Automatic annotation (TrEMBL):
<dbReference type="GO" id="GO:0017178">
    <property type="term" value="F:diphthine-ammonia ligase activity"/>
</dbReference>
<dbReference type="InterPro" id="IPR035959">
    <property type="entry name" value="RutC-like_sf"/>
</dbReference>
<dbReference type="Pfam" id="PF01902">
    <property type="entry name" value="Diphthami_syn_2"/>
</dbReference>
<dbReference type="InterPro" id="IPR002761">
    <property type="entry name" value="Diphthami_syn_dom"/>
</dbReference>
<dbReference type="InterPro" id="IPR014729">
    <property type="entry name" value="Rossmann-like_a/b/a_fold"/>
</dbReference>
<dbReference type="InterPro" id="IPR030662">
    <property type="entry name" value="DPH6/MJ0570"/>
</dbReference>
<dbReference type="Pfam" id="PF01042">
    <property type="entry name" value="Ribonuc_L-PSP"/>
</dbReference>
<feature type="domain" description="Diphthamide synthase">
    <location>
        <begin position="1"/>
        <end position="226"/>
    </location>
</feature>
<dbReference type="GO" id="GO:0017183">
    <property type="term" value="P:protein histidyl modification to diphthamide"/>
</dbReference>
<dbReference type="InterPro" id="IPR006175">
    <property type="entry name" value="YjgF/YER057c/UK114"/>
</dbReference>
<protein>
    <recommendedName>
        <fullName>Diphthine--ammonia ligase</fullName>
        <ecNumber>6.3.1.14</ecNumber>
    </recommendedName>
</protein>
């Protein structure tokens, strides 16, 4: 990609340019923001480093790349973590600056920034990139700071300290010192005080005077002044004010060959009203007016966290295309959320099922008309997108399942930048959503994070990369396992004779379950062709009823063993193989009948006086307990949680 690099003069913004080159990108322009007054070294900015800005003008000559500069007129008006367009905010100066760069160089498709640990800065750069249709490149994001500092120095970053503001750093001693010279001392401060060795906590700032990208010349600082901002005895604050400097040529012709007019001053005002937001919302409203017959809905009965599913009933001939089908199910889902007193910001997770993954881009285009950052100020939901045989099952070309919470306590991880840390989102969703102790992970591919290319060594390599990308951790209290086992011993003597089933050893082979801290119960029930034979149903036409009753029986038994009830159900997903040769309508009816029968037979307190548990059917080409054995015809996933 052709990249415009955001440069503050610091080591990070210069080194990320080197990483861009390493990953095959091309730096075609530089962009910098500076104070209105040249004599001012530092602004009270949450966003920009400006110390040393007097020297940045030389970067254009050093790299022979055009430099676009804008004076910062705004201030930090919108100080919440997630940024929304705010008139007169300093972030809007960046929008104006990059808009002009894009206008003059239309081939630019990406923006690089040196963000390492600041979500505040990263999210604002990503917000601007999103508005301008650009890709954010942040290859230093979440890298180990000790290793990163060593890597920068080893790869030729020549930088000096231009600001210090931490215990152990003295303006009179350390300003102007070379970064390589300071490295051992910075590591010592980390050991003594827990300081950030790359200065991510504001401990220090740097100015790059030379690096491998400076092919024409290096910067030589001749004279400077030390300006003391705070004489604090523990952590004094001071900055370096450059007074004179010159360029030292790297070869005899380098400076003479530079093109005239490499530096551009960007004027103009920022946007005063969020026009793009209004336009996006209007488009969503237009879509909501679209109506469609044959929409089917289901909703679990749990009140604080529940799921809503929406799919199209009827033959595949009624489908007019993925966009139209997805608009229909999203419209109906949005309508149901509003009827329940919720909206998209209450959604934790979305399962998006489509009939053809080659239409992924079209699905995203439709999806963002409904689920937007403006509608989800606490963060867009996490999502998985899966190709399923929907058309073969007569379910149209799109199917949606959403997990909803009745509060706003969720926390999200939403990184849009391409980095070396983890894959960026390839759609309008968050990588992970944390809600009440449960981490809902977005779907993962075996993508190499910095290149965003699939691993090409085969399926095993892709799987290993996908698992490396997410690294989820589940914490369980030490005594929870003992409590669960004790509870199971106390309860498994109960009567599970519904429909005449008596406990047999092979029954448990069908069930995988995990209870966490006595509060969460996850059950996976697998019915293979071999299990169907063991059920001994002589009448073929009644075999499906026998299987569904057996599924409901085992699910109910598992809940009862661990003192859960159907009222605790957050979601029940029933995957069925299309090889079963049964219509969705028939399968839905037999499961619905089985639950009604269970409700009639169950003692008070198991199902109680609530409605029958709600489920959704998901067609699959095959399922199994291993890649070598895909002979499951029905797989049930039950997630239950006590309030």
């Amino acid at each position: 990609m052709k990249v415009v690099a955001l440069v503050s003069g610091g080591k990070d913004s210069c080194y990320v340019m080197m990483k861009c080159i390493q990953y095959g990108h091309e730096i075609v322009a530089l962009a910098n923001l500076l104070p209105v007054d040249d004599s001012v070294d530092e602004l009270d900015s949450y966003m920009y480093q400006t110390v040393g800005h007097q020297i940045i003008v030389s970067y254009a000559e050093c790299m022979n790349v055009p430099l676009f500069r804008r004076r910062i007129r705004g201030s930090s008006r919108h100080q919440k973590l997630s940024y929304q367009m705010t008139p007169d905010d300093e972030v809007e100066d960046l929008f104006v600056l990059l808009s002009e760069v894009k206008r003059q160089i239309p081939s630019i498709t990406a923006v690089s920034s040196g963000a390492i640990a600041s979500d505040y800065q990263r999210l604002r750069v990503e917000s601007i990139c999103s508005r301008l249709g650009l890709v954010s490149l942040a290859f230093l994001w979440k890298q180990d700071q000790t290793l990163l500092l060593q890597e920068m120095i080893a790869n030729g970053i020549k930088a000096i300290l231009v600001k210090v503001a931490a215990i152990g750093l003295d303006p009179s001693k350390h300003l102007g010192k070379d970064l390589a010279f300071m490295e051992p001392y910075l590591l010592k401060l980390k050991e003594l005080y827990g300081s950030n060795v790359c200065g991510e906590g504001g401990e220090y700032e740097t100015l790059t005077l030379d690096c491998p990208l400076f092919t024409n010349a290096r910067i030589v600082l001749d004279e400077f002044q030390v300006v003391l901002h705070s004489p604090d005895s523990i952590a004094p604050v001071g900055v370096l004010h450059p007074t004179t400097f010159h360029l030292e040529k790297k070869d005899s012709n380098s400076l003479e060959e530079k093109e005239p007019g490499l530096v551009f001053e960007v004027q103009g005002d920022g946007p005063n009203t969020p026009e793009s937001t209004h336009q996006r919302d209007n488009r969503a409203v237009d879509v909501v007016e679209h109506t469609r017959n044959g929409v089917h809905l289901s909703k679990t009965g749990k009140e604080n966290t529940f799921s809503i599913c929406c799919w199209l009933e009827g033959s595949s001939e009624s489908s007019t295309g993925l966009k139209e089908d997805l608009e229909s199910v999203l419209k109906e889902t949005e309508s149901q959320l509003l009827k329940q007193g919720f909206n998209w910001q209450n959604v934790l997770y979305i399962h998006l099922y489509i009939s053809d993954m080659s239409e992924f881009a079209a699905a995203n285009e439709t999806y963002v008309k409904f689920i937007t950052h403006e509608k989800c100020p606490f963060g867009v939901p996490s999502r998985s997108t899966i190709e399923l045989p929907l058309v073969e099952a007569g379910l149209g070309k799109a199917y949606v399942e959403v997990l909803v919470a009745n509060d706003q306590s969720k926390r999200i991880l939403h990184v849009q930048s391409i980095s070396s840390w983890a894959p960026s989102c390839i759609g309008p969703y968050s990588q992970a959503t944390l809600h009440k102790g449960v981490l809902h992970m977005a779907g993962q591919l075996g993508l190499d994070p910095p290149t965003m290319n699939l691993r090409n060594e085969g399926a095993v390599a892709e799987l290993n990369q996908a698992l490396t990308n997410i690294k989820p951790v589940l914490y369980v209290e030490e005594d929870s396992e003992t409590e669960d086992e004790t509870r199971q011993e106390q309860l498994c003597e109960g009567d599970y004779g519904c429909w005449g089933y008596k406990p047999e050893e092979w029954h448990q082979d069908c069930v995988q379950k995990r209870v966490v801290d006595g509060k969460i119960c996850v059950t996976v029930l697998s019915i293979s062709t071999e299990v169907m034979k063991k059920l001994h149903e002589p009448k073929e036409e009644q075999q499906l009823e026998r299987v569904t009753r057996f599924c409901v029986h085992l699910l109910n038994k598992t809940l009862y063993e661990y003192s859960f009830s159907w009222n605790d159900t957050t979601s029940l997903r029933i995957h069925f193989s299309t090889s079963l040769g049964v219509s969705v309508k028939r399968l839905f009816n037999v499961f619905e009948t089985a639950f009604k029968e269970l409700n009639e037979m169950s003692p008070e307190g198991i199902v109680g006086d609530s409605k029958e548990p709600t489920f959704n059917l998901v067609p699959v080409l095959g399922a199994g307990n291993s890649s070598a054995s895909l002979d499951n015809i029905i797989t049930c996933e039950l997630f239950s949680r006590r309030s």
